[in-house]
Design goal:
- The chain has 348 residues and is an alpha+beta fold.
- The chain folds into two domains: 104 residues, no CATH class; 221 residues, no CATH class.
- 28% of the residues lie in helices and 21% in strands.
- Strands 7-11-12-15-9 form a five-stranded mixed beta sheet. Strands 8-10-16 form a three-stranded antiparallel beta sheet. It has a two-stranded antiparallel sheet with strand order 1-2.
- Strand 3 and strand 4 form a beta hairpin.
- Helix 1 packs across helix 2, helix 4 packs across helix 5 and helix 4 packs across helix 7.
- The chain binds zinc ion.
């Protein structure tokens, strides 16, 4: 291993802590600062650190999509202005890697300039795109063997199966896919995602129902990375749907209409990517190489698919309607919460 820097080389505390996590324990003397106690970094690790701190760490979220404010490469000289205490750290990384840091002008698809997504936001063009979504996304069959979970905070009667069905009408119309005219039951095969989605705290009384279909259910799978040939990000239906489900509350009127259309088309429900997918898998959203989304590269499809944690949204009241049965009910005790984090610069 040839180590070029160590965590003690940096003066910014966030950068030091990130370097400690990325670096290797090794008691040789650092060839830059001469200290032995820091975690050692190879050139590749310094590059990973620079990406995590300066690129991911400056990721700016838009209404749809997100783009980093800073990028670096070997063609540019450093041109970002930062707080004085950063200067030496940036110089050190620049010299070690032979790169410059600069303000990144994102490609516009990254910040939501995606035609089908823009069409979904306009009332007059929405229906046509929704029809494409219904036609082009795959059907997934959920059979009796597919157990999934649903969490309730403080149900009145925890042993009562009906407590785990879709909530009563007065509580509908606030979620991503439900509306007063289309009740939706949310569930997931990933219990951690269920816990996140319910925004539970340690004080809550939490119960979890293990559910299973009573017959094969037909779901429209919107978590699927849709293969598209000869289509750029700007015209991509895949990118439109991907961004829609990573967007906040302002996007819900659109996703609710997709749910209604899937219901009319005869589906029992939807599979969609959890908003918490990226937190759960610890991955960076909207990753790109040379301004092209990873989702456009056929060899990256599996990698991109793995970043998505699928959730189920079942239409109507599946327990009352006997489409879904309650296999088990348990108390869920929140014993340990683990936050993953990393750092970014301020004032760039
Ligand atoms: Zn050092």
């Amino acid at each position: 291993m040839s180590f070029v820097l160590c965590s003690n080389c940096f003066s910014d505390q966030g950068l030091r802590l990130d370097a400690e996590r990325i670096g290797d324990a090794d008691d040789s003397k650092c060839q830059n600062c001469g200290q032995a106690s820091g975690r050692k970094l190879t050139k590749e690790r310094v590059e990973a650190l620079a990406h995590r701190f300066f690129v991911w760490g400056t990721l700016h979220k838009c209404d749809y999509g997100a783009a980093p404010i800073v990028q670096f490469n070997e063609h540019q000289k450093t041109s970002i202005s930062t707080a004085a205490r950063f200067k030496k750290d940036i110089e050190l990384i620049s010299n070690t890697l032979g790169v410059g840091f600069f303000c990144y002008g994102p490609r516009l698809w990254m910040v939501g300039e995606v035609e089908p997504l823009k069409a979904l936001q306009e009332g007059h063009s929405r229906a046509a795109i929704i029809q494409r979504i219904i036609n082009e996304y795959p059907l997934v069959e959920l059979d009796e063997s597919r157990l999934f979970y649903r969490i309730r905070k403080a149900p009145k009667v925890p042993t009562e199966e009906a407590e785990y069905d879709t909530p009563p009408t007065e509580f509908l119309g606030t979620g991503r896919l439900d509306s007063t005219d289309l009740p939706v039951m949310y569930g997931s095969q990933d219990l951690e995602v269920c816990v996140h989605e319910c925004r539970v705290t340690a004080e809550d009384e939490i119960y979890v129902a293990s559910l299973a279909p009573t017959r094969t259910l037909k779901l429209l799978d919107l978590s699927y990375v849709l293969p598209e040939e000869h289509v750029t990000e700007f015209d991509s239906l895949d990118m439109a749907v991907h961004m829609l489900f990573l967007a906040g509350k302002h996007s819900y009127p659109i996703s609710r209409e997709i749910a209604k259309a899937a219901h009319v088309a005869g589906y029992d429900g939807l599979i969609y990517s959890s908003y918490f997918s990226l937190l759960r898998t610890g991955s960076m959203p909207f990753e790109a190489a040379y301004g092209i989304s990873y989702r456009r590269f056929p060899q990256m499809r599996e990698y991109e698919q793995a970043k998505s944690i699928p959730n189920f949204a079942l239409f109507g009241r599946p327990i009352a309607g006997q489409k879904v049965t309650v296999r088990c009910i348990n108390k869920l005790v929140l014993s340990h919460v683990n936050y993953g984090f990393h750092f970014g610069p301020v004032g760039v």
